[in-house]
User: What shape does this take?
Amino acid sequence: MTIRPLRTPRARSRTRLLAGLALTLLLTATGGACSTDRTTDGTGGDPDRKGTTFAPGVLRVLASSELADMEPVLDTARRATGVTVKPTYAGTLDAVEQIASGKADREYDAIWLSSNDYLRLRPDTARRITGETLIMASPVAIGVRPAALSRLGWDPAKVTWPQVHRAVADGKLTYGMTDPKRSNSGFSALVSVASGLSGAQSALTEKDVTKATPKLKEFFAGQKLTSGSSGWLATAYARRTDVDALVNYESVLLSSFPSGELTVIRPADGVVTADYPLTLLTSAHPEAKDAARRLSDYLRDPATQDRITRATMRRPVVPGVAPASGLDQAPRRELPFPGSRKVADGLLDAYDNTLRRPSRTVYVLDTSGSMSGERLERLKAALTELTGDFRDREEVTLMPFGSRVKQGEVRTHTVDPAAPQKTLEAIRADARKLSASGGTAIYSSVQEAYRFLGKSPGDTFTSVVLMTDGENTDGDPAAEFDSFYASLPAAQKRTPVFPILFGDSDRGELDHIANLTGGKLFDAQKGSLDGAFEEIRGYQ
Assistant: This one.
């Protein structure tokens, strides 16, 4: 199969902010000295950016979301150096687009991504960055349950990517991985697998990916969990007994499962490694550049490097500092990264539309009387925007409800790879027809979504998205829903519900549904509704 330039859905319908790559992934940062300089509630919203102009002693950093675990170290750095880091967390590919567009120049002094590898493929970013200081490192690895490892008879020190592929293709190994378009750990894993299975000896080329495509299809058929973030992936994995392994950064696997629930394997034929370079923007104020230098010096001090490796399970980059206990010190081969943006984009597009299992989602949409007017128009606009991100082969069901599910308005569409525009326009037309009436039957409507999905189960990433602007007023109460969920077959219990907090909806009710079903709550009260829908895409 010849890979093609990344066909982002909004290129099918409208110009996309990410210009051919990824949707925004913004995660909530915690408070304290490392509090963010804008609210990031995981909704992709863009609230007022107060305090974004340079302030002495403050370093505004656009950072990979996984670096939230560095906040205790940065708090100590503030006391030692006088530099207060204000991070805004974003997915790596979204951050690259902000840099290329010039948006980052206006709002940040530096970037701190998992890797600058993709950034280097963008010639339009070269003049916007200056210098980089490597802070720590973590290679892609595979965490395998001990029982699965024993069943496979593997020696952890000798496992290779072809070995892993063979086990998956033979139905002997299943795994979870984050979404490569929203998480750099997923992107690094995708590149590692493609390089490992293609046998590439230098920068990954289009020919290499084409050669590896049959094996990649077999490999990704074994992916049973996807996620927009490593944290949720680990939590979801802990709920599942049918998933044998996780593919993620070594540090994430060791930190998430510190008691040895997984055996961490670093494939012997090589991996892609995140090296976390703290990188200045050329537009940064001279005082900000000096602050970045002081911070970098502190983070690379041997004592700090020792603290970082023990606290985060990432590897030190300063000679003479020993990695934390549990980190294999044997030399690793670094697998080649794609040699061009076209190859990287094509690999992402192939993953989304050809390689991975398709998605199947029921959107349970509150169209009660309280949604009348501006709220309903926001919902229609968000759904119209969302159609741009639907993948080939994806099944999408719109299930509006009021006092009950409005059965006559339930519509299901499957995106046809041969004519995606036709399907997407049909979904947009259905969204435009939504009308507000009735009460709010939240629990009964979610039950209907489960019943609908249960009628024709398939080998898909299956989920329910619940959007409501109010509390449950009609139909079954929470207790009835709990009993219903408890009675579901084990396979159906693996379908998570992703509720969206909107309008006057009850956080407690929606949190309960998310926690019960293994989903995640998304907040559109502080951010945008379309941003919440878009972030959920990483979990579908």
